[in-house]
Amino acid sequence: MSRGATGGMSGHFRREAKIMVGLFVVIIAGGLLVGLLLPRIRQWVAIDRCLDAGGSYNYQTRVCEGAKPGG
Measured between alpha carbons, how far is residue 30 from residues 12, 26, 42, 65 in Å? Predict the structure, then answer.
């Protein structure tokens, strides 16, 4: 029995292997992207809430100053 040019692996399984590697790469890239963006999004939300409550956000100390309680 000859395995031919494919080395014994059918095109279907080769295609599935490429899909699995691609999915792995997408998941890893997505995790890195979330890990990089999450702190920035959290800071943006904190600033937005501070300004919505009537305060001013101190970017050096990362503290909301003068916001109304419950605002």
Answer: 27, 6, 18, 35
- Look at residue 38 and tell me if it is in a domain: yes
pTM (predicted TM-score): 0.59
- Domain limits for position 61: 12-65
Can you give the pLDDT of all 71 residues of the chain as single tens digits?
Answer: 445 555 566 888 889 999 999 999 999 999 999 999 999 999 999 999 999 999 999 999 999 998 887 65
**Token pair listed for 24:** 């792995």
Nearest residue to 64 via CA among 50, 53, 52, 54: 50
How many structural domains does the chain have?
A: 1
Let me know if residue 21 belongs to a domain: yes
